[in-house]
Amino acid sequence: LNQYPDIEADASVGRKTLPVVFGAAASNVVYALFMVASGATILFLRVTGYLPDFGIIALLPIGFSLFALTGVMKYAANIGRHPLYLGANVVAAILTPLLLGIALVSG
């Protein structure tokens, strides 16, 4: 999502980011798929016993991802004017692996 505010600048210098090449709508779908895949992976690992019970805590930041997704679906390439959504994405990207790591170390 942090590539969205730079779509025009990236395109002008030939960078091939996902939003530049495929557009905001397709990039939104990829973001949503990544969000679902990460949540499904955590659930799968918990159900199969590869992740301790406490590992389910790594799903908590998905709320931030959902919030970011609603913002990017609403504002698309103009998401840079709404930094709260970009911040939520950063929070989710940092907290999810952090909580997963804590669960693995403590479990």
Average the pLDDT over all residues and give the rounded result.
95
Number of alpha- plus pi-helical segments: 4
Residue share in helix:
55-70%
Distance between the termini: 32 Å
The outline comes out as: elongated
Proportion of β residues?
Answer: under 5%
Sheet having the most strands = none
Order of helices and strands: HHHH
User: What structural class do you assign from the helix and strand content?
Assistant: mainly alpha
Radius of gyration: 16 Å
- The total of beta strands comes to 0
What low-confidence regions span 5 or more consecutive residues with pLDDT below 50?
A: none
Descriptive overview:
The protein has helices spanning 7-12, 18-47, 62-75, 83-106. The protein is elongated, with a radius of gyration of 16 Å. The longest helix is centred in the N-terminal third of the chain and has 30 residues, at 18-47. The protein starts with 6 loop residues before the first helix and ends with a helix. With 107 residues, it is mainly α. The relative contact order is 0.17.
Summarize this structure as a short list of keywords or feature phrases.
4 helices; 107 residues; mainly alpha; 69% helix
Short description:
With 107 residues, the chain is mostly helical. The chain has four helices and no strands. The termini are far apart.
Note the topology:
Blueprint: H1 7-12, H2 18-47, H3 62-75, H4 83-106
Helix pairs in contact: 2-3, 3-4
